[in-house]
Each structure stands twice: as C-alpha cells, then as structure tokens.
Design goal:
alpha+beta; 2 domains; 3-stranded parallel beta sheet; 15 strands; 36% helix; 15% strand
C-alpha cells in the first residue's frame, strides 16, 4: 500500500522529547520560546507565538485585531472548514469568495466586490502548498489586514518571499500530516510585535503577569514537548520539501500527456511545497479513486464540498461559488509525501494511465 500521508519522525524527535521529559518542564517554557524564535526566523519575520493548533492560530490572529460581532472577514470558499470557523468563534461573519480554477486559491479579482465598511480582515489560504497571488490580494485589500493561512505551505515561496511573511501575520498548523509537525500545534508569525504580544496574552488566560488577567483569555498554549518535536522537524523541513518537489515533478512528467487529467498549475513566481499533489479529473473521479485504492494506492478528495455548503456554514451564507463547486467534483490528491519513493511514483503513474486509458 502506498499511503496518502505518513508523518516522518526519527531519532532526533525522540531525543528532543526525552530531553524535555528529563527536564521536568513539560508545559510552556523556554523550549516553546526557542521554537517561536527559530520558526519566525525561518519564515523571514521577527516574531512568533506558538499555540495549540492551526485553528487556534487563526482564532488568535483574528482576536488580536479585535474582530468581533458586526465585523466581516473575507476568505476562500475552498479549503478545510477551519479556515473559516474561527471567524464565527468571535461572532463575526465569514464572507466567502470563489477561487481561481487553476491554482485553487482565492480569486483576487473577486475580493474587491465584497469589501464593505465592516470588513476587518482578509484570510487567503495557500492551498495545497502553493501561495495565493499575494501581490494582487494586498492591492485589493487596500490596507485591510491580510492574514495568511499557511497551514499547508511551510516553506512555500512567492516571488522569493516565504509564506507567512507578506501579510500582517501568517498562521501555521503542525498537524501530523503537514509538511512539518509537532503532533498538534500551531504558530502565528508576524513583524508586528504588538499583535504577537496580544496573542501571547490571550493564549494564556489573558495574563500579562501571574494572576494579572488583563482580559478574558483562552488556554491555547503549546507544550514544550510539542515545541521540541517542532524544533527537530524544522531542521529537516527544507530537505523534506525538496523530496515533495521531486515527487511532484515525477508525477507531472508521468501524467502530463494522459487524456482526461489536468495536472497542477504553478503560478509564475511560485515555488510550491506540495502539501498535496492535486489533479483534476473531468469525468469519473469516484471510479478512478476506487480503482486506485483497489491497486493499493492511497488517494483522497480535498475537498468534496465547499466551506459555505457545509451545514455548519449554510445559515451564514446566501451566495453560490460555481468554480469552487466544480473543483469539488473534480479534484483528487495523490501521494507526494517524502516517504514516497521514485519507484512508488512509477506505480502510481502506471496505474492512472491504465485506468484512464482502459
């Protein structure tokens, strides 16, 4: 079986965990602070605030801007639901935008149509590891804070700039299947120290000092155990991303001439990190998926529905998103992670050719 995803951990992560276990400081502490500093530096920004998940990172970034009832936050219609639920956590309204059918990212041309006097932030998602068109998004924003959802884009480059370094802040997830992991965890990175300091307060019960609670806060800290894993993973990230790029190039070479398949489009100036290698199949996607599984090849649909069409979101949305809805019917992702070997790629390509030509 060629699995769809597989966390890659080794002796470095195990040694890091044991170092923290032996220290006796398992909760938030110097290990977390070191991880914040190292990860922010990797992203090309000054500051980082580690939290308990990628969802918490989005939640805290929005909260740091004072987003609340009556406010609107613009985001993509095509992503995992956690790109939008933090907006509702704060009592604000999500405003969804359709996507570019080639990159699967938010369509910048459609952002200005939904900006109002209530718009408090814009959250583009760098889906599948390719950065959204940040120049066009920042221009459309006209000064409205842009918060980058980088949950799938650790190390992705846009015109030489790292994901998370271009907007007011970048939010990352370290879930086990991401390009790097802490088990569970997240991070907000930013050059804005005031924003980061507010997140550090809010994630820790609103404390500015022990038992000095400046505001109502949350318990969304990252543990030292998670941070230790993250520090070890960060040192391996570039190498693992290069393996993803290698596998993506091999898949593209093998599939680009196969009828009925649309291979990933890479926008000029982008260097994706291929969290997913996602193709489009105009007809028969479910049959292809089933036959791949029968051949022992993992595959998955990210995503079978748009965020706005989810029952959890329907009460808040009236519009339709035809491009995203069509992509939901066509996309399928193939194994591309670092544990996929070139021989595995040959197996995947051969299987798809047989299925599509049969």
């Amino acid at each position: 079986m060629i699995p769809m995803a597989k966390p890659v951990v080794g002796k470095e992560e195990k040694e890091a965990v044991m170092r923290v276990m032996d220290s006796g400081m398992l909760a938030h502490g110097p290990e977390v602070e070191s991880f914040e500093k190292e990860f922010a530096e990797y992203c090309g920004v000054k500051h980082g605030a580690a939290v308990s998940s990628g969802t918490s990172a989005i939640h805290m970034a929005l909260a740091s801007l004072g987003v609340g009832p009556g406010d609107e936050v613009i985001t993509t219609s095509f992503s995992f639901i956690a790109s939008a639920t933090p907006i509702l956590f704060l009592g604000a309204k999500p405003i969804f935008v359709d996507i570019d059918p080639r990159t699967f990212n938010i369509d910048p041309k459609k952002i200005s149509n939904v900006i109002t006097g209530n718009t408090k932030a814009i959250i583009p998602v760098h889906l599948y590891g390719q950065c959204a068109d940040m120049d066009a998004i920042l221009e459309a924003a006209g000064g409205i804070p842009v918060l980058e959802d980088c949950a799938q884009a650790h190390g992705s480059l846009y015109k030489g700039k790292k994901a998370g370094s271009m907007g007011r802040a970048g939010m990352f997830s370290f879930y086990p299947t991401k390009n790097m992991t802490t088990g569970e965890g997240g991070m907000v990175v930013s050059d804005d120290l005031e924003l980061i300091e507010k997140i550090r307060m809010l994630r820790n019960h609103g404390q500015v000092a022990r038992y000095d609670h400046l505001s109502v806060g949350y318990n969304l800290r990252m543990t030292s155990l998670a941070a230790a894993i993250g520090r070890a993973q960060l040192r391996k990230l570039e190498g693992k991303n290069e393996l993803r790029r290698r596998n993506a190039a091999l898949l593209t070479k093998g599939l680009e001439q196969v009828d009925g398949i649309e291979i990933p489009f890479i926008q000029e100036g982008n260097e994706p990190v291929f969290h997913q290698y996602t193709i489009k199949i105009a007809k028969g996607r479910e049959e292809v998926s089933q036959k791949l599984a029968e051949k022992g090849i993992g595959n998955k649909v990210f995503y079978p529905t748009t965020i706005p069409s989810s029952p959890a979101m329907k009460p808040h949305v009236k519009d339709t998103f035809p491009v995203a809805e069509e992509c939901c019917r066509q996309v399928i992702s193939l194994p591309v992670h670092p544990m996929v070997a070139p021989d595995d790629i040959d197996v995947i390509v051969k299987a798809i050719r047989e299925i599509m030509e049969g």
